Amino acid sequence: MTTNDWAPAFTARVASQMRRARKAAGLTVADASAACTDLGLPVPKTTITNLELGRRSSVDLGEFLVLAKVYDVPPVTLMFPLDTEAAVEVLPGQEVPTWDALAWFTGETRLDQPTPQGSSREVLDLFRAHSDAVATALTSARMAKERRRKATLATDAGRRDALLETVASYEELAREDRRELHTFRDRMRERGLVPAPLPGELGDADGSAIPADGDDA
Fold first, then answer.
1. Which residues span the domain enclosing 152?
2. End-to-end distance of the chain based on CA atoms, in angstroms?
3. Can you tell me the distance from the alpha carbon of 209 to that of 211, in angstroms, rounded to the nearest whole number?
4. Judging by beta carbons within 10 Å of its beta carbon (0-12, 13-18, 19+), is residue 84 exposed, middle or buried?
5. How far apart are CA 12 and CA 126, in angstroms?
6. Over its length of 217 residues, how does the chain's per-residue pLDDT go in tens digits?
7. Which has the closest alpha carbon to 24: 88, 63, 80, 77?
């Protein structure tokens, strides 16, 4: 495929995915147009129709993002259809497996060498690791809370005492996960990065250092 052919072909692939997504969402062209207006960016019915029928050779980025939201699909899946094409021409004359194209776009391409500090890939990896740390801390906090709830509801004194001993280990694990998250967020800020806000359950991970069990607060 020549350079002149690549851009229209790419647009046609996106348009085909948009049409599939619209139909899967159970929306008419009129429905989609109205939903775009509700989101703050009017997209006329003729624009959607002309795009789906191949009468347009390019896609406006704003329209692309709003339509992806209306169809409730990740925008990247409109560009790289994992479920329908094994390979795509990701750039003029460069055909690669569809997953490799999607991974390149999202910064997930594996590298043979360590990621250079400060590179876009390294920053993406940091934010993914932060997301994992938040999920881990949330899970341990909720497990500790549930264990304590069960212990307080136990009517048998012996069972309650046994459950409370178990609770202590769960709560220490939860504190350790919050301490690690706290440290991780501090390191991100030292790099000039802004971590995402924490769920209310983990609010103390953004305060002063979380004390170890038995330490003074």
1. 120-206
2. 66
3. 6
4. exposed
5. 35
6. 566 789 999 999 999 999 999 999 999 999 999 999 999 999 999 999 999 999 988 899 999 999 999 999 999 999 998 888 889 999 999 999 998 888 888 887 665 566 777 777 788 888 889 999 999 999 999 999 999 998 888 888 888 888 888 899 999 999 999 999 999 999 999 988 999 999 988 977 886 555 555 444 3
7. 77
Domain boundary residue, one of 106, 140, 175: 106
User: Residue 66's beta-bridge partner residues?
Assistant: none
Whether this model's pTM surpasses 0.70: no
Number of domain units in the chain: 2
Nearest to 164 by CA among 156, 136, 204: 156
Q: For residue 101, is it within any domain? A: yes
Task: Report yes or no: 64 and 14 within 8 Å, Cβ to Cβ.
Answer: yes
Task: Assess whether 71 and 11 both reside in one domain.
Answer: yes
Q: Residue 24 corresponds to which tokens in the numbers above?
A: 């899967």
Q: How many residues in the chain?
A: 217
